Amino acid sequence: MNGLTIAVPRGALFTETLDLLERLGIGTAEVRANERRLVFPEAGLVTMRPSDVPTYVEHGAADIGITGKDVLLEQDEREVYELLDLGYGTCRMVVAEPEGENAIEESIRRLGAVRVATKYPRIAARHFADTGRQAEIVEVKGSVEIAPLTGLVAAIVDLTATGKTLVENRLVEREEIVVCTARLIANPVAHKLKAAAIDELVARIRSLDGVVA
Amino acid sequence: MIHPIPPGTRDVLPDEMRELRALSDGLRSEFERAGYGEVWTPTMEYEDVLRRGDERAAGAGYRLFDEHGQVLALRSDSTIPIARLVASRYQDAEPPLRFCYFAHAYREVHRGSAQAREFLQGGIELIGPSAPEGDAEMVALVSSALEEAGLRRHRIGLGDASLYRTLLADYGVPEDERMPLLERLSRRDLVGVGVSVERLGLPAPAREVLTTLPTLRGGPEVLERVSDAHVAGAIENLRACHELLADRGIGDRVIFDLGLVRELGYYTGAVFEVYDPAVGFALGGGGRYDDLLGRFGRPLPACGMALDLHRVHLAQAAEERLAREEAPA
Question: For residues B212 and B235, what is the distance between their CA atoms, to the nearest angstrom?
Answer without folding.
Answer: 15
